[in-house]
Amino acid sequence: ESQPATVYDAVGGSETFRLLVDRFYAGVATDPVLRPLYPEEDLSGARERLRMFLEQYWGGPRTYSERRGHPRLRLRHAPFRIGPAERDAWLGHMRRALESLQLPESLATTMWDYFVSAAHSLVNAES
Ligand code: HEM
Questions:
Q1: Does residue 95 line the site of ligand 1, with CB under 6 A?
Q2: Domains assigned to the chain
Q3: Which residues contact 60 (CB under 8 A, 6 or more apart)?
Q4: 76 CA distance to ligand 1 centroid (A)?
Q5: ipTM of model
């Protein structure tokens, strides 16, 4: 029996990323710390961009870069003030969304470790 070649396939492909990002943004939508940062009234564009990015990052379709170019996440987050409170709020919603998927533990840990390090790398304010 062969193992899926990518995390994208191992976790269930596009359906899984859609669920993850939908649940994550359902949390963001009501978060008093995070919601004001999102420039658009409708979060569907942001949801789509995060989903495409994560699918690509984990070995799925490269639609993100076809539409948006190089990710340059630090640069793209520069307009938003991201301190420890924003980082931790973001990670809290992502953790709940990830847990809701009930993935095998090694996959959940792989994804979670990445989210933690990516979120820390995007902090651009001290408080
Ligand atoms: C975009 C906030 C962490 C990936 C955005 C936007 C905001 C934001 C306000 C603009 C929404 C939009 O696209 O219209 C934050 C905050 C974070 C955080 C407060 C806390 C640390 C992350 C992490 C990742 C990520 C850890 C990746 C794992 C993205 C992507 C976009 C985005 C892919 C769209 C970039 C583009 O193509 O324009 N984020 N973010 N963000 N964020 Fe984050």
A1: no
A2: 10-121 (1.10.490.10)
A3: 6, 8, 9, 13, 14, 17
A4: 7
A5: 0.97
